[in-house]
Each structure stands twice: as C-alpha cells, then as structure tokens.
Amino acid sequence: MRNGGAIEEISDKKFNGDLLHSVVIPLMANDRIAMCKGVDPNELHKSQLYVTTAGSQQQFSYEKMKEIHSEMLVGKSAFNIGNGYELPCMHGQLDIDFVEELRESPTYSVSDFMREYESTWTGSNSDNLVSDEKLNKCRTLGVAEWEHCGDKNVEYVLSYDVSRNEGSENALSCLCVIKITPNDNGGYIKELVNIFSMEGTHDHIQAKFLKEQVNAFKARILIIDANGLGSGVVDACVIDLDDGNPPYAVVNDDRYDKYRTNDSVPIIFALKSHNKETRNSDMINNFMKVFNRLGVSLLKTAHEGIKDLEIKYKRKIKDSEERASLEIPYLLTNVLCEEVLNLKYKQAGNETKVEQITRRIKKDKFSALLMGLYWIYLQEQENKINQDNSDYDFVFTYN
C-alpha cells in the first residue's frame, strides 16, 4: 500500500498495469486544492492505496506489491502489509474451526486456501513452465463433452495418469480427454474437452473405467502411464475382465504380444518416460511449446461453461445436481491450471525437468495432459513424413 488517498482494488485476474498506468494514475496528476485555495505543502499528494488478496506471482498485482515493498525498505513514503487467517482468528473475526474444515476438505483447492486464507502468492514469477497469461488465453472452450460428438472427422485421445493409493485424497488417478481434428498440414486442432479424476483403486476397477470411456468417446488411442503402478493397469486392460468388453492390446511394446487374442483391440500406448521415444525431457519441452503458441484449447470457467452448455442444450440448467455434475470438468480444468502454475522448469545439461514450487499441490492432471499432447506430437510428425512421401511419389510418377 501507499499511504492514504484514493483506493483502487486490484482484481486477481482482470486488473493489469496498462489500465492502472493509462487510466487511473493520470487522473491523479494534479495536487489537491486545500481550504486555503492553494496547495498545502505539508499534505501528502498523489497518494495511492492498493487492496488485494494474494494471487499468482505471475500477475501484475504481485509485481506492484513487490515494488511498494522495495520502496518501503529503502525508506520512501510507502507501506506494505499482509496477513493470513491467524490474525482475524485471534481477534474473533474468523472461525478457526471453519478454516480448519476448509483446509482438510478434499473438495477445496489447496492453492485457493493458500491464497485466500494464508496470504501466500502461489506459482513462480520466473522459470515458470507456462505463464498465467498463456493459460488464460488457452481457456476458450465452452462446451465439455462426455461422449463422441458424432463428427466422423474428429478423433479422441485418452491419456491416463495412474495412482493406486486408496483412501488418500492427494493420490488421484486422472484421465484427460483430448479431441483432435485434422488440419491441412498433417497436424491437429487440439481441445481438452473433459477431465476425469478418481482415487487410486484396484487395477481391474481402473481398467473397467478406462474401457467405459474408450467406448463412450470411440477413442483412437488410450495412453497409459506404464511406469511403476501403471503397469498393473495395463496388465488388467490386456485380459478379459468379463465386463462385456474385449481385451486390449499394446501397440508400442511387443513384450505384451503374448497376451494377444483374436479379439484383442490394439489401442493401448504404454508410455514409459525413460524410453528413448518418450523421454520425459522431450515431453516437457513439447508441453511448453504447445502452450506458448496457444496450441491447445482448455475449458472455460464453470460459470462461462454452463452458459455455453445451456445454449447447446437450448434450455436452462436449473437442477442443482445436474449443474454440479456438469461443472466438474470445468472445475478440474481450474485444478489443472493450478498444477501447471505450480511448476518451474529446470535445465540440467540437455535435460529439461519440472520442479514443484509446493508439494501440497499435486501434478496428476498435468502428467495426464503431458502424455496425451506428446502422443499427438508423435502422430503429427508421422503424418508429415507420410505426407512428404506421398508428395514425392506424386512427383516421381508425374515425371
């Protein structure tokens, strides 16, 4: 804060430096006229007061807070203060039991609690994997999907990050559903149309869930994290589970060929991050490139998404249970963005790694999307090679 005067509230998402410097500050160009009909030399002029809750370190409000804090430290006329939930609880202005319930609630975002109740600025303002600005610009998709849209030109990529810690609110398995539409140059328009999140359960239960989603979206490929715990889910998918679905087959690892039967569906891509073709460093670099060029569309906020769904359904969504169910993919997209903002990239020689700023925010949704986007990248590269070969064959035949 700067001492006294006009109050401008900085919104976490929408307020920016351009608005402040081009609109608000110019209004304060003149000194205030005192009762003496002139300027009082003993009065502080052009004073500014900023009030905000904590947000992301990539936002303008964080930069402004750091600026004022630095001015205070060097003895300028500036003052900066912040506090968490402890102070209002101490003075009876906030119920500590209510705060503790929120902290422990599995449905309340960890990063929201850190910002709103602990006054902690989340994310990083340097070496961030993806900027807050880029993430917000990618959130352009209004309609979530729970099944194939019916367009024969569209395909769906399912990507699954595996957990098996039953009963732990933090150990979650995540399925990302990426809709891909081919364009003219061998690439795809990529849209993250749904996210499913569940506690890690028995491998067979997870396998049955995945087969249900493959059926619903008529998926082209099912990518499964086959590192560690994920190998058990792959093993469960390649056998007959007596659930009415055929066994699956792995398309990128011939060690699973011995499990193939006549009715096995070749659809599983068993991804291992230490393999040469799917190195973790390459997947991270691709993830950063996709977001930096705004190459994937994410779902909007729940409020905006429900409006778009109402337009699609041509009716108001008034039932509270239906509305809550429809909001889930939008809310999980919020969590995905929080996970991404909690990651910094770290260069170690030729290797790119990610580092969590706080371990309290997990990265299961990030990992699922990371794998899905990389499989799409590999497919795009293959498409371009095939396209180039096709062009060469045409020229050769013509000559």
How are the SSEs ordered, and which strands pair?
Layout: E1 6-9, H1 17-24, E2 48-51, H2 60-73, H3 86-90, H4 96-104, H5 110-116, H6 132-138, E3 155-161, E4 172-182, E5 188-199, H7 203-217, E6 221-225, H8 230-237, E7 248-250, E8 265-271, H9 280-292, E9 296-297, H10 302-313, H11 320-341, E10 343-348, E11 351-356, H12 364-398
Parallel strand pairs: 1-2, 3-6, 5-9, 6-8, 7-8
Antiparallel strand pairs: 3-4, 4-5, 10-11
Helix pairs in contact: 7-8, 9-12, 10-11
Description:
- With 399 residues, the chain is α/β, with parallel strands linked by helices.
- It folds into 2 domains: 6-116, no CATH class; 132-386, Nucleotidyltransferase, domain 5 (2-Layer Sandwich), CATH 3.30.420.240.
- Helices cover 39% and strands 17% of the residues.
- It is built from 12 helices and 11 strands.
- The chain has helices at residues 17-24, 60-73, 86-90, 96-104, 110-116, 132-138, 203-217, 230-237, 280-292, 302-313, 320-341, 364-398, and strands at 6-9, 48-51, 155-161, 172-182, 188-199, 221-225, 248-250, 265-271, 296-297, 343-348, 351-356.
- It has a 7-stranded mixed sheet, sandwiched between helices. A two-stranded parallel ribbon has the order 1-2.
- A hairpin with a 5-residue loop joins strand 4 (172-182) and strand 5.
- Helix 7 crosses helix 8 and helix 9 (280-292) crosses helix 12 (364-398).
- The termini are far apart.
- Mean pLDDT is 84; it is low at 1-14.
